[in-house]
Amino acid sequence: MMRIHRLLTVACCALSLSACFGGKKVPPTLLTLTSLAPAPASIARSASPGDAVTIDVPVVSKELSTTRVPALVGPNAVAYIEDLQWVEMPDRLFQDLLQETALRTTNRVILDPRQGALDPGLTLSGTLSRFGYDVQSGAVIVRYDGALSSQGGTRVETRRFEASVPADGTAPTVGPALNAAANRVAADVARWIGG
Questions:
Q1: pLDDT beyond 90 at 98
Q2: I need a labelling partner for 28 at 20 to 30 A (CA). Which of 54, 72, 88, 113 fits?
Q3: H/E segment holding residue 70
Q4: Tens-place pLDDT, residues 141-154
Q5: Phi and psi at residue 70, in whole multiples of 5°?
Q6: Number of other residues whose CB lies within 10 A of the CB of residue 182
Q7: Cα dist. 153→31, 121, 145 in Å?
Q8: Are 141 and 63 in contact (CB under 8 A)?
């Protein structure tokens, strides 16, 4: 009886996991973003009122509101790269990458929006409008439109950041290319934040 119970539990877990991936075979690995900026041994910082930077989760379009990696195959057609999925939603992964890169490469105190009650200071928000493979150019493209606003919104700056890295449209090349392009954008954003 105990053996049957274990088998049923394993079967139910397998079915629920396959349901998470639309009933299809789970990819051999899941994709994430990792910062390529050198990590300091330790970080200890303080900020005067209004000097911290809070980095919000970017707004994304419908084709990016999934763990699948999009491929733009025409002006109004989107497909998804086979056997390539994010470990988490790409907007959250990109926010984490922006935070980590800014933390490693600037002298700013970097906050998550959940820490905003401390002193949000400057707020970085934006739209992640491209974050996938472009068939026509044969490259992945990452495009982020950032808005940096002071506390109370007395001053707002906007800027577009974009990077592309060649790939052949397959999972083994698109994943690393997306990480490289996202890191270029994150490094440019960190320089814009400054400090």
A1: yes
A2: 72
A3: strand 68-74
A4: 999 999 999 877 68
A5: -80, 155
A6: 27
A7: 36, 10, 18
A8: no
